[in-house]
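Dihydrofolate reductase family protein
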Amino acid sequence: MRKLVYYIGVSLDGYIAGPGGEVDFYPTPPDYVEWMSAEFPDAIPTHVRRHVGMDPDLPAKNWDTVLMGRGTYVLPDEHIESPFGHMKQYVVSSSLAQADHPGVEIVAGDPAALVRELKRADGLDIWLCGGGTLASQLIDEIDELIVKSYPIIAGAGVPVFGGVFKPTQFAATRRKEFGNGAQVTWFERA
């Protein structure tokens, strides 16, 4: 069965983005970017792939489906209609109209029901791209966390999980550290 994987970057104080959705403050030295691009090429947006020396048509490695919240999909200064065109894209939103966003599938209903349906289908795993509110709605469906921890304090912004108190145990299974202090840690549901 497919897994729902929450692959996310987080500051030391628990934010995945700044108050306006900013993520450009995370320190990403070249060796880190190179490793991440090789390990998780599916997470590189389709329109960015050529700029980082990747084939835009590179087949999926880890995930063939991406699930985003509205805030992750509609960034104020940089909206791309089909950011991950190399995957099946779902956007959970009660305010976006499908007719206005033909490059993705808008999901106005229960995201957990969608995830359970997707898990039963054939394919690679499902990437939960963000954001924190959607992650909190899906906490019972998340099978694996891949957390990119950056050595920086944001001070405010979008929390990694927002809006619900629901202690859920995960166990660390692997860790990769980088010279700049960034770490990537894999967790599986305990």
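thats it. Residues 41 and 105 are 22 Å apart (CA to CA). DSSP finds five helices and ten strands in the chain. bye
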